[in-house]
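Entry for the shared binder. Reason: the reviewer on the internal report wants the predicted structure included alongside the sequence.
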Amino acid sequence: MNKISNWVKYCLEALPYKNGYVLDLACGKGRHSIYLSNLGYNVLSVDIDEHKLNNFNGKLIKKKVIDVENINNWPLKKKKFDAIVVTNFLNRQIFPLIIRSIKKGGYLIYETFSEGHQKIGRPTNPKYILKPRELLRLSNKMQLVAYENIYINNPSNHLFQQRILAKNV
């Protein structure tokens, strides 16, 4: 199982509540879904890959196979979440839809690859790599709580990332 993101841990500690309804968007193998469930959050785990969704469980986890990249068929229009967690996923077109799916007073916890990463590993396609300060621009209608634009360089991990914790006001 992949390691839980330190950013996600940090952001969850900063939230004013310790439960609620959380969307783990593009959840992959469910590492954050399981972590959130174990903390007591009700989690909707969403991914396009049914095989990945079938390989994890948690007592407070509901799973859905959804093509969230289809902007014309955003499947979560009627749902509002206390928080949305997104890691290592980027689709600029759906960003406004993600924000609209967060309850007033709810939070966005987001981290993904930023410029520079293409020089050291995948992804290399600019479509999946944030430009400088882009995460700030994409979430500019929200209240900024925390932001980082960092390079992680340790033996097991080399990443250029942007990270944000923002509140829907």
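Summary line for the report: The domain at 6-167 is CATH 3.40.50.150 (Rossmann fold).
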